[in-house]
Amino acid sequence: MAKTRVLIVEDSPFIHKIITRALCPEDFEVCGIGANGKEGVDLFSSLKPDVVTMDITMPVMDGLTATRKIMEVDPQAKILMLSAMGDDALVDEARTIGVRAFLQKPFKPDELNTSIRLILQGEL
Amino acid sequence: MTVAHENYLDFFADAVQKNLSAMAGISGDAGAVELQETAFLSRGSAIIIGITGTKAGRIVIDMDWPTAKALCDAVNGEEILDEEFVQETLAEFTNVVSGHAVSGINNAYPGMRLMLTPPSAFHGDNLSIVSPKLTTEVVAVQTSLGTIFISVGFEAGS
Fold first, then answer.
1. In chain B, residues 51-90 whose CB comes closer than 8 Å to chain A
2. CATH of the domain at B43
3. N or C terminus of chain A with fewer C-beta within 10 Å?
4. What domain count does chain B have?
């Protein structure tokens, strides 16, 4: 069975490493890494990933703006927000613009894998 | 809205202690909050994050290089020899601490909407950090790896 293709949009090389290590290798593969929101939008269009992990605080373009632009391109895009921030207003805003799930850093590998599986199953 | 600065520092001290445990598996003991001079000398490794939104300011997490290196190794669960990746790790640690702290502040004070800028990392001797327009306070957190200093400043009157 084909693996789920994950696009990471995140400016921190440390988090690139954490996400890549955390993803279950039998089920998921990283198809691309965008170091800011603009790169994420561009890579989403060219790679057509199954799922996007999206940071919020990034240079050039933040994750909320990038999510809005991706949703304009594909309203069915499956986006999991991974952020150090997690206040109620921010989570509400993310959900309003189409984010399927929100994980606050630091996260456990199980939380990441489970969140992506639930998004793919349409349960988030 | 007026909130004493030391109340803000409590959110940062709590966030450091919580994430030292979650990310590095160690504990930390926060000392008393103290006023800080507008200029101070870094201990050797400093991460700076800007605060934007309803109040403007900045956060500095500062420590000496041996502490920075040891904290990085603990967070990664292995020895990191690449100096740039040590700074990347500390930048993300500071980002997580700052994110948790400002989220706590945003939730606790209705109408407050603080956001963060991406972190910048600095490493070297005789690195002077000057924040002339900010009222700044600092708290020291003692850990088994060394002391971590959290400095938080907001624009006067913001």
1. 76, 85, 88-89
2. 3.40.1550.10
3. N
4. 1
Residues of B in contact with A91 (CB under 8 A): none
Q: Residue holding tokens 């005789």? A: B126
Nearest to B88 among A14, A59, A105 (CB): A14
Token pair 């996007």 in the structure block, residue? A52
Tokens 């601490």 sit on residue:
B97
Q: Residue B139: give the domain boundaries.
A: 5-155
- The dihedrals phi and psi of B96, each to the nearest 5 degrees, come to -65, -45
Q: B74-83 long-range contacts, Cβ below 8 Å, gap at least 24?
A: B74/B24, B74/B25, B74/B26, B74/B145, B75/B23, B75/B24, B76/A14, B83/B123
Q: Check which CATH number belongs to the domain holding A55 and give it.
A: 3.40.50.2300
Q: Does B95 touch chain A (CB under 8 A)?
A: yes
User: Is the pTM of the predicted complex or chain greater than 0.90?
Assistant: yes
* ipTM of the prediction: 0.92
Nearest CA in chain A to B105: A87
Q: How many domains does chain A divide into? A: 1
Say yes or no for a CB contact (<8 Å) between B103 and A106: no
At B154, list the tokens.
């907001």
Residue A54 near residue A100, CB atoms below 8 Å? no
Report helix, strand and coil shares of chain A as percent, to nearest 5.
45, 20, 35
3 state DSSP class of B13: helix
pLDDT per residue of chain A (124 residues) written in tens, 0 to 9:
789 999 999 999 999 999 999 999 999 999 999 999 999 999 999 999 999 999 999 999 999 999 999 999 999 999 999 999 999 999 999 999 999 999 999 999 999 999 999 999 988 7
